[in-house]
Amino acid sequence: MAQPGMFGLRGDDWIPREIADLKRQMQQDRAANPFSPMGIKPVAGGFDVTGTLGLPAGIINNDALANPVQTGTASNGISNYAITTTSTVRASVTLTVPAGFTQAIVIANATAMGTNSGAAADYLYVAAVVQTVNGGELYTSAPAGLGAGLASPFNTTLTGLSGGQTITVGVATRAGLSTWAEAAANQASIAATALYLK
What we know:
Helix content: under 10%
CATH topology of the largest domain: Jelly Rolls
Number of strands: 11
Largest sheet: 5 strands, antiparallel
Order of helices and strands: HEEEEEEEEEEE
CATH architecture of the largest domain: Sandwich
Distance between the termini: 76 Å
CATH class of the largest domain: Mainly Beta
Structural class: mainly beta
Shape: rod-shaped
Number of helices: 1
């Protein structure tokens, strides 16, 4: 029996036995789940992260994502033109589908203003057009000799696309009763954003 303040005898092999026990415990822990302290739980074919996973910015590219997204934007406009009574695309932009993407959510915002040069009150009509599809006209009235302006948004989803294909988005305008003479105040613009999906 050891004296008070003295260590008991463990034998000459206690250190190798202690190391072997530690190794065995580490192997068992590793086999069970070495990542459990970090909140990572193994599952068949992958793992679930139950805690916060911090990754350096920019290390995961689109190719590694199941549903990546890319964007495209463009805008264009025209001024000093005659506004006829036939709905006509006055300005347009072209967006190109990136390689590997097959869908696009297109957000178009068409705006226009003009001066009614006629002798009577008239209407200014504006529409956004995506791939020749008119998003629906909106209109506003303009007394004779005065101007008017408005915006006409149109959002649509295109499917069956392929890389390199182009999407044309434009702004169409017309007058209701008679042509409005060319004037610097006659303006039309289109702003388009595309969200490309796989």
